[in-house]
């Protein structure tokens, strides 16, 4: 059911035959670098190029010898789930000298390498660009010294460079997310969640130092994701008197019966006088002024370590494939570029434009132009900061605008991790906007039963990190109870609805809006935020909860693969959730390195199953003697998980044995991932601001009356932007029978997954990123980082 594309350009036109590609990792390591290396190697081999691994970064390129080795398909197996970089990274003084770069050029020419993929930070990428600019001069010198033949200058005349940004700090301008950032946030949030339990027990205050000497992204987003009381980072130095303000807020929180405080500090945090703000200074301040039991935790290199998150694996795999396409398409005139992510799209940007803006950020900070530095960081950073400021402190009642509007919030459908973060954000932003906020328990079922009560700022404290739905959620649709729901809206004078949920939420709002002619109570602004692990809501590329589910799938697959590595010759069949939507199976398969993934959207028959069995039989003859097959729960009514398990067992008899695993509701449970917490927080804040705007526009003659199509919307992520879309317009995009959108963006990731599993298929490059300029990359509404 993938949509046919009349303008498809297949990879045959971009052969790598006769070309050599080298990949290296440089600078600080970041989780996900190995996934990027694996993708470059496998995509390179797939197109017929020779691919080389350069060990120990630029130092290995300068030293040559055993540091430059040809890569094999099997050689990059088992790298996907490993943190750091298995090919090594080193700071290299030699490469900064002309002599060092001359040696590096000689070593590349020896191997016939003229395509270089560099994974690192801005320093590493700047070095690569200088190397490219000097290339023809370096070759001329090598000819003069008699180290290479004269015809080699013509043969290897141009060096093509593509960069991928690997940095846990997310400090590179032009990309929404760098490889490693999401995994570092996972490490921070794991620690914060653990610390919260002990802090609660002893009523302690904890001061946590996170990395970010020059960029506060980790501090800012982790503060948003855990609901920290205070945060310090370089781009937002506090004004004079911040000590009094912070202590006042901490004491107010304790007066509200909050048993703990969390303060997050970036290692590069400064005050407005450029004086460093250290964790110990904050601790002494809190102990001295408030007498609170206060502890300091410095996370350090824990943030760089551990296994990469699902997000980073997918990001790195997509970028690695895109990098090879970019290298094959490059001509002698193509500038060095970085492949990066804006919204949900892969783009190519001129490397030096990105580096220049990144350097301008530091210049603006040195000149104390902090607002300019935040603007240069890009819209992702700006929106995180504006959302944090909205939620950071509770205004006194006298300072709040008096809106006299009542807004109800409810969860509908199955629980999804991140729902509670969205509810917290909605309630607090609503109160800040002057509204009275009401919580509806148990979805539409609770609504018609009158389970509605006012909810305060303090009621949602500590909700960000809680999984499931604390409001309670049910799949019940409102259709049979419209009269009672209208009555409850009249009793509580509800002027607007915010519904957070899955396909039932979508259907429910359609039912309410279609009943507006009969019930005037439904003529109010209504907005839906997609929250479902299945990610099957039309109008949005992503849903709250799907990232947490992907991480649950990926973690389980990692453990299963590890068990198979001991027993050898074993294939695991794993069933994922998703209803008829194959998102979890496909994207989980890409993140876990699956050999095959069966989904409803891509029909398959017994011949396809046989092909997959033969593929695995051949794989068992190599050094990778294990297999991983994912199956979406409703992919085919006849080819069930049991059927596929029995077929594989029979056909693989004597070659491999099989095991099956149904993941079930573990995909819905657990603490929300940093991405889902952040996504939920920002989307809900934006939704409530839309409600405020709509209420002002539709308030006439003392009543709210909104019955236009535009007053019932879904807030979703579309490619690069967050968009409010009328539900009426989304009906044409919906397959109501199978509860999925008719067109799903992630289907274009399936060829990537198949190529990386060594299937020979057509690869459509018509949607590959085109070279853009940084200033054109961010549309007005583009709201944040998202990968997948």
TrEMBL record:
Report the Gene3D superfamilies cross-referenced here.
Answer: 3.40.50.450, Phosphofructokinase domain (3.40.50.460)
Self-association or partners: how does it assemble? Homo- and heterotetramers.
UniProt: substrate binding residues: 167-169, 204, 211-213, 267, 295, 301-304
This enzyme's EC code(s): 2.7.1.11
Tell me where it mainly resides: cytoplasm
Keywords assigned: Allosteric enzyme, ATP-binding, Cytoplasm, Glycolysis, Kinase, Magnesium, Metal-binding, Nucleotide-binding, Transferase
Query: What is the stated purpose of this protein?
Result: Catalyzes the phosphorylation of D-fructose 6-phosphate to fructose 1,6-bisphosphate by ATP, the first committing step of glycolysis.
Tell me one Pfam family matched here.
PFK
User: Which reaction(s) does its UniProt entry say it catalyses?
Assistant: beta-D-fructose 6-phosphate + ATP = beta-D-fructose 1,6-bisphosphate + ADP + H(+)
Alphabetical list of InterPro entries matching this protein: 6-Pfructokinase_euk, ATP_PFK, PFK_vert-type, Phosphofructokinase_CS, Phosphofructokinase_dom, PKF_sf
Single GO cellular component term? membrane
Q: What is this protein called?
A: ATP-dependent 6-phosphofructokinase
Tell me where it resides: Cytoplasm
The cofactors it requires, by name, are:
Mg(2+)
GO molecular function terms listed in the Swiss-Prot or TrEMBL record: 6-phosphofructokinase activity; AMP binding; ATP binding; fructose-6-phosphate binding; identical protein binding; metal ion binding; monosaccharide binding
Q: What pathway is this protein said to act in by its record?
A: Carbohydrate degradation; glycolysis; D-glyceraldehyde 3-phosphate and glycerone phosphate from D-glucose: step 3/4
> Which residue intervals make up region (C-terminal regulatory PFK domain 2)?
406-788
Annotated residues that bind ATP are located at 28, 91-92, 121-124
Lineage, highest ranks first: Eukaryota, Metazoa, Chordata, Craniata, Vertebrata
The answer to whether UniProt assigns keyword ATP-binding to this entry is yes
Q: What is the superkingdom listed in this entry's lineage?
A: Eukaryota
Stretches for region N-terminal catalytic PFK domain 1: 1-393
- Cite the Phosphofructokinase domain residue spans from the record: 21-326, 406-691
Q: Which residues bind Mg(2+)?
A: 122
